[in-house]
Amino acid sequence: MKAPIIALLALAAGAAAPSLALAHVVAAPGEAKAGSYSAVAFRVGHACAAGDATLKVRVEVPDAVASARPQPKPGWTIAVEKDGDKVTAVTWTGRLPDDQFDDFALLMKLPAQPGSLVFPTIQTCEKGESQWTEIPDPERPGEKLTRPAPTVRLTPAATDQAPAMPDMPGMKH
Ligand SMILES: [Cu+2]
């Protein structure tokens, strides 16, 4: 009786492995200085399923992010959702085939508090949808999630003598 169950589990693991091995939707870079203005791209590594195409990417902006502005993308339209002045979500609409990747960027004023910033993201495809909304547990850093939300780790701001790396050239504020 046990053998068939083990075989089924092995099959299930095998089926899940290809998508796990690919890039998911991730924040790039996945680390930034707390309190900085930083550009972070949401990198879409593949469509919702093999052979599908991504049509829409909606990124939720956490409350702690004081400002967020999307980078324009040729071929994509941008819709910004706001609560008062605060940007709460940004949606890019266009078309990205499964065998290509692309970056969808936001320039943000990041919170001063070090920690993890989670950006729940919905990827809408021609044939389906992937909800990248699972929140990583900081106490289980190596844990493999099926659909982890893109996450930016905020590192303590340097006590900088010299200006730090130019994160965001051209930004006026
Ligand atoms: Cu993936």
Folded structure, characterized:
The protein is mainly beta. The chain has a single domain (22-137, 144-155), classed as Immunoglobulin-like (Sandwich), CATH 2.60.40.2230. The chain has one helix at residues 2-21; strands spanning 25-28, 31-33, 37-44, 53-60, 67-70, 77-83, 86-97, 102-109, 115-118, 121-125, 129-132, 151-155. The strands form 3 sheets. A 5-stranded antiparallel β-sheet has the order 6-7-4-10-11, with no helix packed on it. The protein is globular. The termini are far apart. Copper (II) ion is lined by residues 19, 22-24, 45-46.
Order of helices and strands: HEEEEEEEEEEEE
Task: Return the CATH topology.
Answer: Immunoglobulin-like
Q: Give the proportion of residues in helices.
A: 10-25%
Question: Can you say what the CATH homologous superfamily is?
Answer: Uncharacterised protein YcnI-like PF07987, DUF1775
Please tag this protein with its features.
globular, five-stranded antiparallel β-sheet, binds copper (II) ion, four-stranded antiparallel β-sheet, 1 helix, mainly beta, Immunoglobulin-like, 173 residues, 12 strands
Write the topology of this structure.
Blueprint: H1 2-21, E1 25-28, E2 31-33, E3 37-44, E4 53-60, E5 67-70, E6 77-83, E7 86-97, E8 102-109, E9 115-118, E10 121-125, E11 129-132, E12 151-155
Parallel strand pairs: 2-12
Antiparallel strand pairs: 1-3, 3-8, 4-7, 4-10, 5-8, 6-7, 9-12, 10-11
This protein binds copper (II) ion (CU).
Residues 19, 22-24, 45-46 line the site of copper (II) ion.
